[in-house]
Give the backbone structure.
Amino acid sequence: MDKILVCVGTSGVSAGAEKVADNFEKSIKENKLDFRLVRVGDRGLFRDVLVDVIIDDKRITYEFVKPEDVKQIVSEHLIQNNPVEKLLAGEDYTNFFKSQERIVLKNCGEIDPEDIEEYIKTDGYKALEKAFKLKAEKIIEEMKNSGLRGRGGAGFSTGLKWQFARDAKGDEKYVICNADEGDPGAFMDRSILEGDPHAVIEGMTIAAYAIGATHGYIYCRAEYPLALKRLDIAMKQARKKGFLGENILKSGFDFDIIIKEGAGAFVCGEETALMASIEGRRGMPNPRPPFPAQKGLWEKPSNINNVETYANVRNIILKGADWFSSIGYKKSKGTKVFALAGKIKNTGLVEVPMGTKIRDILDGPGGGVLDKKIPIKAVQLGGPSGGCVPEKLFDTPIDYESITETGAIMGSGGMVVMDQKTCMVDVARYFLSFTVAESCGKCVPCRIGLKRMYEILETITEGKGTKEHLDFLSEMSDTIKKTALCGLGNTAPNPVLTTMKYYLDEYEAHIKDNQCPATVCTNLIKFEINEDKCVKCGQCFKACPVNAIEWKKKEYPILHKDKCIKCKSCISACKFMAIE
Amino acid sequence: MIELTIDGKKIKAKEGQTVLEAATDNKIYIPNLCYHPNLKPIAACRLCIVEIEKMRGFPTSCTTKVSDGMIVKTNTTELQKLRKNLIWLILSNYPKEIPTSSDLKKVVDYVGVNDILKNYTPKETNLPIYSDEPLFTRDLDKCILCGRCVRMCQEVRGVGAIGLINRGIDTFVGTTKDSELKDSGCKFCRACVEVCPSGALTDKEKEDAEEKNREEKLIPCKHGCPAHTDIPRYVRYIAEGRHSDSLAVIRSKFPFPYSLGLVCNHPCEEECSRTEINEAISIRELKRFVAERDDGSWKKKLKISKPTGKKVAIVGAGPSGLTAAWFLRLKGHDITVFEMLPKPGGMLKAGIPDYRLPPESLESEIKEITNIGVKLKCNKKINSADELFKDGFDAVYLAMGAPKGFSMGIEGEDDPRVLDGIETLRKINFGEDVKLKGDLGVVGGGNVAIDIARCSLRKGAKSVKIIYRRTHEEMPAYAHEVEDALDEGVELMLLTNPTRILKDKGKLKVECIKMELGKPDSSGRRRPVPIEGSEFILELDKLIFGIGQSCDAEGFGVELNKRGRVIVGEEVQETSQKGVFAGGDLVTGPQTVIWAVQGGRLAAISIDKYLGGDGEIDQILYPEDEADPYIGRDEGFADRPRAEVTKIPLKQRTPGFKQVELCLCEDDAVKEAQRCLKCQLRLKIKKTPLPPEKKKK
């Protein structure tokens, strides 16, 4: 049967996807057409509402579809088989997917996540069936051989983790899925849970079987209502079908999952804090050892992986470790999903093989810089605990080791593109403001140290910085890295350390020259027109909300400081960085 | 056993110990602030970081378990630097002066500070100081968030009245919704105060705190009792329903649990910490409660030492003499108590009316004393110690008390209708015929005056007036006794003093003068001053003096002070005459029963030592067990009121001498005991390892 796919993930829904889908349904009924409407998850690319019309296996994709466009698509395309030209997805859409290798995200945006049959059609639960025929040791062996490493950020071997949990003695063991995706801008876990929840359930069930657990938890943030709803539906369907619950697939193995909603503390993504939170305690990390595999949830051996890791499991079991390890690079196998954001043409979820160069991601799926006149300066990798990698290192392959070498971290896959209009001191200050707010407050270096660093960064961006402040930042970063209790604290100085490493000149400009080269730090902007850079285009004049800029065609603008309110609208508008 | 090396020193440690514990056991100090031996380590302060060969980074020694062959360094240059930076951080958030006696100060002095940001001054946080709540103060500015208090409250006590509120730099220790401690479930055990290293939690000290040692301050009830009875323990046993064990605890200290349960002035209750929250534990009533249900099981552990062959004579069978007799007999000595009156008991018998202390109860307690072999000789007045030595006694204990009533020395007081108070009381209590009909006046504001007044009503007096020269407030009698007297119909004539008895027939005419209060005298009370010309005549049938008593130890050849009391040594109860000891009211002047009992205890110690014993008189009659530190939550605990004692209705009180106050029922007694704050638990909290004291050069 011919199909219509409407992407109804969180981003689609917020752009009106449900209404679009409803209109299609109504219209198909009214016109008595032989089309099946499938509500699928997001594809990780922001194009408002995406709609696929598949007739005789020929797929036509529409983007930015509005509810009122449905009528036209139905009458012209569905009835007359004449695609609506003006709504067709453009080149960027095609390019975005062309250079990706989608394994984990394969089903996202392709199948109805609320219908288990659709998942089953993609060989769903075949891996589980296969796993039950294997010995637990063999599964773990396969996982180890695949080279899969934790996608939550730390990159520990998943197979080894399972091995430890299996080897640990305990009358009860737990499998936990970390779905507390907390990095600002990262949403790969949400997309997987919304678009392909069964893949996670299948992965967890295989893990449970391998380590000998009968209970699982998915710790998912409450701000993901759609993901929670779809998980719930998926679990109910899986139980009904015998993929979850008692005596799974008549193997005699029992396993079931409980969803635990997190209240949104970033630190609860840290595994020991996450477990404390499940137990109903305050979400604060605990020192390791003991590791969760020894003493985890309720002091029982526990295996904890993140969503993307579990979503990888079915393919490894089904297609084999060799297949998986053939993808990727050096010690980092398989693919990795990145959340591409910032000053880049295509923002969204990008899945590429490990080892892909940063530059290739930006130029490939990313489609290159947003505004060619303002070159890219750096990418920020790994979220608030990550670091800034400068343009000169864009040939760095994306793998755990190479990224760590730059001073950044893989993290959960945040990738924020920054252009020349980004002040690196301000970036460091911003990320510190995040970690200061999200520090749980337990250990001294993270609680107090980050706050002191933040204050100093604020002082520098205000133009009151001194050389001593830079020394302090280095010294305190070192102390926090070495002494903080958990990963949050250990990595929190990274944004400062990497920006100081690659952009010390910017820091010095703030301190010595009282200048913010990127014209971001208001206190350090003179609000003067640099006539060497100005092209007399008048954009600044148009942008100024208080008429502080005077401009006539083919003349340099004049900025009246007495009227200026330092809102920086002119600076945003100027593509030549001519206002300093 | 595990062998490891710390700072080049080979040490042995137990399996499962942490590096910090092993180091502490071997007198190697590793700086720490959030660690506490009673708590699970949380590794929050990070000061106890160490370097361990073959381990990455800087593991915290409080959480790292020892293993064989481990090589640990606790004080490398790198560690020193990191710790100094951490201290700098802690101080950067500590806007006040660190209290010199605090653990934090010691650690800061030991570790030192790295001045990584010159001239940095901590910002004013203006966090609140909670000083209006009972027993302790919370100064949040001084909190370093080590979390010891919170963990103590949750992990060890199971109360959870306080917790960490907010997160990150805004974290503070507080109560639910910032309510008062009592409304957050606090049971005021003050374990939190005990473990606070930074001066954020501090005890509110009483004015006399400086004179007391730690235990005296922490367990005020026990030390408020002259005999140092283990009140926390016996109250706890009642709370646990172990009433016999409770009585055994009391019995370890004196042989009059029931009598004291009825008449003790309970100085313990004045000290009770619970007073600061609402009302003191009703300790005396609890004592009465267990004494009343005495099943004799305390006797099982009672040990009477082998005969020593030494004979002790005790003069006076009052609470002091009998207490000494009891303990000395238990130490194996041969004891004879001489009493000049026909019955034993001293003031317990002669001075306390039957409605307060039923005679059969006192008799049964004295019976226990004679049961262990103490010989009692009544109607036998002893006039000198020498005659006793001649009779073969090795030591003599003088405990004749203060039985002589004072007279006022006013004109006409030799009138036969003017009576001596204590003498009258004795006659009533011994069942002698005393005529107390008509209108009576009792002079004095103390317990004797009140007792006479109440007895008179019971003997059929028409009216009884208490004539007292100061005001109600200054009356030394127990407040509840005065109230009872008033309830029963006794009248108070305050700021009044008799000046003479007129020689006149018919009614007894007593001239009184009105008084007013002047400046405070040496006792701190305002001195009563007569108002000139305010004299008036009071017509009575009898006037009784209840204004104080004196001792009578003339003839024993021992040194007396100006007031006729026997002088004894400061540490030993021995008099100026060798082998002659004294105690109780005879030494102190008229005092409470518990002080007399304590005098007897001290005498027993002195005499036992004098006779070659060790002076260890306390018997351990109760099971040796520790209180459970886990006290749990108990909603409404702080507001729970003190148990009310039921009294018989006024109509049933007079005439006759029925016991007025009834015993608490079991349910009430257990509930009352459960109100106890368990101050004693605090002493069981371990000490944290602190920096070695610097040797003075």
In short: Chain B touches chain A at residues 41-46, 49, 57-58, 60, 63-65, 82, 85-86, 89-90, 92-93, 116-118, 145, 147, 163-164, 166-171 (CB under 8 Å). Chain B is about 30% helix and 15% strand.
